[in-house]
Amino acid sequence: VFPGNCWAFKGHQGQVVIRLPAQVHLTAITVQHITKDASPSGTIISAPRDIAVFVSLLGTSVDTDREEETLLGMFTYNVEKDPVQTFPLKMLLPKAFSRVKLLVKSNWGNPWYTCIYRVKVHGKMENQKASTKGQD
């Protein structure tokens, strides 16, 4: 994680849909930004602030052209805390998903762009339960 080596989008709002390599029972999401000390300007106003996490049901319904989403939680990334922040999801669904949507609703004051340095999705892969049978 180096200053400027981030996913940046114009303005203070943006979204990304992350396609996971497998179906996952989601439990938490981690968002990372740089620290004030690492920032050349000494500020991190480009950090995301209010974030919503959705699962995408694209392709799971009969009408595959229509995207359906379920909100799993809304969180605030706090620039005064650790740069790596993990948010347990408020709604845990019994179904596994392969698409996660991260919607950034605001940042900490930068009017031109918002930066995200790292996003981690936590959970258990759907096939992990079956693959652990017979193992110690």
UniProtKB/TrEMBL annotation:
GO molecular function, one term: protein-membrane adaptor activity
Keywords: Membrane, Transmembrane, Transmembrane helix
Sequence intervals crossing the membrane: none
Subcellular location per the Swiss-Prot or TrEMBL entry: Nucleus inner membrane
Classification via Gene3D superfamilies: Galactose-binding domain-like (2.60.120.260)
Coiled coil: none
Signal sequence extent: none
Classification via PROSITE patterns: SUN
Domain SUN, chain residue ranges per copy: 1-126
Cellular component aspect of the GO annotation: meiotic nuclear membrane microtubule tethering complex; nuclear inner membrane
Cross-referenced Pfam families: Sad1_UNC (PF07738)
Name of protein: SPAG4 protein
Species for this entry: Phainopepla nitens
Native organism taxonomy: Eukaryota, Metazoa, Chordata, Craniata, Vertebrata
